[in-house]
Amino acid sequence: MEAMNDGLPHPLQITRRHFFGCSAAGLGGLALSNLLLAENAGGGGSDLVSAGVPHFAPRAKRVIYLFQSGGPAQQDLFDYKPLLNERNGEQLPAHVRRGQRLTGMSVNQASIPLAGSQFTFAQHGQSGAWISELLPHTATIVDELCIVRSMFTEAINHDPAITFFQTGSEIAGRPSFGSWLSYGLGPANRDLPSFLVLMSAGQGGQPLYARLWGSGFLDGRHDGVPFRPGKDAVLYLSNPDGICGSGRRAMLDTLRRLNRIQFDQQLDPAIESQIAQYELAYRMQTSVPEVTDLAGEPDEVFELYGPAARTPGTYAANCLLARRLAERGVRFIQLYHQGWDQHDNLPAAIRGQCLETDQPTAALVKDLKRRGMLEDTLVIWGGEFGRTSYSQGTLTASNYGRDHHPRCFTIWMAGGGVRPGVTYGRTDDYGYNIADADGNPINPSKHAFTPGAVHVHDLQATILHLLGLDHRRLTYPYQGRAFRLTDVHGHVVDDLIG
Questions:
Q1: Per residue in 16-51, pLDDT tens?
Q2: Domains by residue range for the chain, with CATH
Q3: Tally of CB atoms within 10 A around 27
Q4: What is the DSSP letter of 328?
């Protein structure tokens, strides 16, 4: 590696390799811009944005991803399994387990008893979707939902599983979903980041890391920006005491000139990224306080989202804030709600989780629809994997727990071009394996699309498709390879698209 910041005079700081590399990039950029302009003019597409244009007409303009960290138990929420109740306490049959490994937390149990749900289910809406009594508000929006019961993943522990969903790889370091979208489509509002992150305050559970919303090897301007509850949503955004707006503007102008001098000497694109981020931060001094101030929302909106919506940092307040961010053109809004990890004491713990999340989740979908935004806003609800149909630990008449289960679980989507009022895929009668149309267990593969089953990369490919992006073409060259969100797998699930 040649040092490019060694204090040498300007002419000697540009090597021959650097000169030809930058020249080629400049000519290539001119050619690409002409091609994009020609394509856009010929195809009647939308205006070009800074990062690019969609590959085809999008169905969705933005995403609100309600990530339920920990793994919600599908048997207690969406996947009604009366056979589990009938055989409650019996041992998991060998023909159901089929030799599959268990996690280290339950593999040494002397008994692996089936655990039926303690909660009642009923069918709702014209679609007749089965929903647990724990989700009475979600039951009122089932005809807007595309429920996928046949998700499957590869990871069996939280950290690689959530990393897989958020970045397309179990190994840390790849760009997150929102960063890929920011890179592919660019900002829709120059005064707010393309990718914003909201976390429920005060929640226990598996830890969340900044790399889950990091840009990896993409430009740093594609990082997700976390909002904190309270007055200062973004640290160090406000001017310190004694600094006025004009003084901050003068400081940034001077800093930009200095950075431009450094860029002219070193041709380091990270410097241009820093300049852009400083300018965005300056504009955010006005835009962020405005968008995070919920005081102007009418009482009926707070009633819709629930009383917790008045408390900053709650899941309910974050759902309401997500709607406000979506209104202002933020491309990808990521909510995290921890605590869905009920290895024991599930009946009490999951009831509490649903009380916190059910009403505001349904309210968000209703609010978007009545504002005419649901049709181009994709809402996603789900965790990193599901839970076992057997009890982890001792099964009693009033208590049970469920271990991690990656082989089948439920997520749902709404709006943004998905098919409303459908339930896609099915599981066997024990809720342990994905099943075919006749109820027979199947072993889906990530390498080839299996009808009725949805791999994590299939879900990612489908979401990108709804946003007008071909997951095979949204790539970035890094370390001699063209990387993409879906790695080398993934298939668009056409049956999920309306």
A1: 555 555 555 454 444 444 444 333 333 333 333 335
A2: 64-229+307-496 (3.40.720)
A3: 10
A4: T
